[in-house]
Specification:
single chain; about 150 residues; alpha+beta; three-stranded mixed beta sheet; 9 strands
């Protein structure tokens, strides 16, 4: 019973997210210059947080192509406070993956090391913005999984 309700909720959330992305797409007006302007780089900055800030975490930024992880656009590591920054020249759906590193667990105050195969992620949609700020958390990983499920 609950499985059917959760499935319906996931579909509704996915449809709402897709409608918001579609509504955000604006039409372009005609211009005098027939050549497209060179797209400026987009600075993506943010933080990675599980139960604490993730330090020394590998960050990889990919283009989403046909519902799958495409070309690697950039990579970096988080600093001690779990923050990162990369610049890319891309538009459309972008996947940001965070793997490895460590964090201080808030309840026990112990340092927890994360194995490289355990990744969390986020998905964003770029339309020529100069800057994007994103938090990568277990919740953004669930949103990414729902979006990926809806695409495939």
């Amino acid at each position: 019973m609950f499985g059917i309700q959760i499935t319906k909720v996931c579909k509704v959330i996915s449809i709402i997210a897709l409608l918001i992305m579609q509504a955000a797409c604006g039409g372009g007006g005609g211009g005098e210059n027939p050549l497209p302007q060179e797209r400026p780089d987009t600075k993506i900055s943010g933080s990675v947080f599980v139960s604490g800030a993730m330090s020394s975490t590998d960050i990889k930024v990919y283009q989403l192509t046909d519902g799958d992880k495409g070309e690697l656009l950039a990579s970096t590591k988080t600093d001690k406070s779990g923050e990162f920054e990369v610049s890319i020249n891309a538009s459309g759906a972008i996947i940001i993956e965070a793997s490895g590193g460590s964090y201080r667990e808030t309840a026990s105050n112990k340092v927890v090391s994360v194995k490289g195969a355990q990744a969390i992620s986020a998905i964003i949609y770029l339309q020529g913005e100069d800057e994007q700020n994103i938090a990568i958390t277990p919740f953004t990983t669930m949103i990414h999984a729902l979006a990926e499920y809806s695409i495939k």
